[in-house]
């Protein structure tokens, strides 16, 4: 889409989608609404948006600080969801019929903004803590600029954090950046840098290619915090070891939407009937790898049928809703097989493009323990967790998906 200067495809329809059993669907919807309304995690998000997680994330060591290199930072308190709610919230917003209403509209009067979207937790982390910028209004403005230009705030923040790191180490200077400086804690750099990225203007063109390419060009690929070229979201895998497995097995690179183990191991999600239960967050084991694989399977289904991951009414209602819309009679086992199939097919496509189990690796910076904070001294042991995850997913010990495994999942292979 980028190479064609295409920003979005909007589709508008005039028909209706009645579903196979509208009466049953209405009943299930009411039940999902009730269960979601009573859910504690959902209530917390309703009160402070996803930003409400920031204080807890800082406590666990889940919030990345200074390009994932520092375990504690007192500035995090200035970015909290409570402060945002008390001082900058204009109103909450909800998707159609959602009782959670996680969306925020905020103001940033110092920057002349009286009502803009966000920021989400991910944006506060990426454009705030990663850069050690604790000026909440500056982060609101930066998030708004990214939204306006259509930039992902995680990749933008990750790449700017790398630029700061390169400046700090003397590997980059103003002669290469059109006079722009990149310093941790400097909120002034944000508007100019974000616009330069969006317009691919001067040094912005190099930033726009992302952290992996910039770090390689400068000769320090080990400083890029990416998996398969995608910047790491704002959940440090040292704080939840299962998250490390989800990041490295995510088909599109590090992505927190492909298996949120921070939700499982903080007790926000439990689906005992499919083997997803909270455990010790700093544990690296075969069992942790298996639980993560099951959460990835479940989220692959969520993503395929376009469910919001903040709504977790239970597998029984998800299954019933799907069957009542489509007129199917699927069982829970069928759903799990479908989730496995989705992951296997994506893995197989990546294999065809040269990706192997060797790519299932955390970035170098994340294999180093931090000396303070909620992850103190802890790093995931990838080999033992990956062995469990591969086996759970039906892949071989090297993470390879065979055609036989694909056929067993119901994929028809054309020769
Ligand atoms: S559906 Fe999800 S994204 Fe939309 S308002 Fe509800 S919780 Fe937020």
Query: What is the tally of beta strands?
Result: 5
Radius of gyration: 22 Å
Write out the strand line-up for the largest beta sheet, numbering strands in chain order: 1-2-3
What would the CATH topology of the largest domain be? Answer: Aldehyde Ferredoxin Oxidoreductase Protein, subunit A, domain 2
Question: Could you tell me the strand content as a percent range?
Answer: under 5%
What form results from the Cα inertia axes? globular
Distance between the termini: 30 Å
Can you identify the CATH class of the largest domain? Mainly Alpha
The proportion of residues forming helix, as a percent range, comes to: 40-55%
Biggest beta-sheet profile: 3 strands, antiparallel
How confident is the prediction overall: mean pLDDT?
A: 96
Give a quick set of tags describing it.
3-stranded antiparallel beta sheet; Aldehyde Ferredoxin Oxidoreductase Protein, subunit A, domain 3; two-stranded antiparallel ribbon; 415 residues; 17 helices; Aldehyde Ferredoxin Oxidoreductase Protein, subunit A, domain 2; mainly alpha; 2 domains; 5 strands; binds iron/sulfur cluster
Quick recap:
The chain is mostly helical. It is built from 17 helices and 5 strands.
